[in-house]
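User: Watch each token:
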Amino acid sequence: MDLGRIRAVCWDWNGTLLDDAEICRQVMNSVLEEQGLSPLVDGQSYRSVFRFPIRDFYRSVGLDDDRFVSAASVYLALLATRVGEARLHDGARTTLAALRARGVRQILASATLPDALAGQMAPYGLDDAFEEVLSIDDPYRASKHDVIARWLSRSGLAARDVLVIGDTNHDREIADDLGTPFVHFDGGHQAWSGETLRITALGEVVELLAPRQSPAHLADLA
């Protein structure tokens, strides 16, 4: 994979920059308990079943389509009361700052409604880190594809010049569809599938993009 030409990074928020997977597991367990279903006992069990479309995740824990909307509504309401407990992943601020210092454009895309996303981001003072913050308009569909595609079309960049970084199959599928490189952050909501380039710490992103200044190193990453 040639990352030496990357000019912009599209970051996922929940699970990638924001360390909220454990809180989400606990909230989902509250919903499951209310529905008389078995809980997700630990982070590994949660990460093994989490996926998009979000309905598929709900089905995997026993919440079928007949209960999806009501369960998702309860989940979102409970999550809104807990999300302020989440912290940024280690290295998030320094990685964002390092990429900015190198002139890499950065946007953020989240499968979260605009008001909720603004509330989640408010404690961290990251507004200046991104040239745009993209969010969804349908909490039950939760797809970021269209908003990222529209940004890419007006960005003036070729798809191969934009790196998508996320923690779910949805992020990977968006990247595949748009033709952008993708890196899976293996510290968020979904376990790594083994099919893509992976990082386990956010600071590794800076190292991956190092070939921009060290062409001899590019062959090691290809």
Q: What stands out?
A: DSSP finds ten helices and eight strands in the chain. The chain has two domains: 8-19+87-221, 21-85.
